[in-house]
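This section describes the prediction task in plain terms. A model, or a person checking by hand, is given the sequence of a single protein chain and must write out its three-dimensional structure as a string of tokens. No templates, partner chains or ligands are provided. The sample shown here is typical of the held-out split.
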Amino acid sequence: MFEIGFWEMVLVGVVAMIVVGPERLPGLARTAGLWLGKARRMIAEVKAEVDRELHLEEIKQSLREQSHLTEINEIQQDLAGRVKAIQQDIQAEFDDPGPPPGWQPGAISAPPPPGWKPSDSPVEESTPVSLQKPVSPPPSPPPPAAN
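The expected answer:
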């Protein structure tokens, strides 16, 4: 701020001794020192207050940023929940065994007839399973009599 060198201080001291006199010079120096100390303390307090205000402003700014981050986190959690629900729906679709073998659209679902037992032979997917009684062929005509 002010740069006062040695020769400037000597000049001020000589002028003060001439103007004030040697008897009152020590008291004046002491009073000037007290005022200078008070001024330095006041400047230090103002600096500290400005630093505190700047620090509070930085804290307020970080809180504002964190509130935005909180909103973003809430949105992220909501989206994660939706994605998880969609994944569960898709997984439920894949876990569904689907229609039984041989099922055709429009077929009536009914329990198997009494006494029906599954056969040990594998059933092909392409042949439909029929749960109806087989129709017996008509009786064949008797063989002609030999004469």
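For orientation: Residues 16 and 38 are 21 Å apart (CA to CA).
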